[in-house]
Amino acid sequence: MPLRDQFRPPVSNQVSWEEIHGMWPARIVLQLRTLLPKGYVAGPKIHAGSQVEIDVAAFEQDDAPRLRRSDQDGGAATAIWAPPEPTIAVETAIPDYDEYEVRIYDAERGRLLVAVIELVSPPNKDRAEKRNAFVSKCAALLQKGIAVSIVDVVTPRPFNLYAELLQFLGQSDPTLGDPRPHLYAVSCRWRPQDQRMLLQTWSHTLTLGQPLPTLPLWLAGKLAVPLDLEQSYEQTCHDLWLT
Question: How buried is residue 220: exposed, middle or buried, by Cβ count under 10 Å (0-12/13-18/19+)?
Answer without folding.
Answer: middle
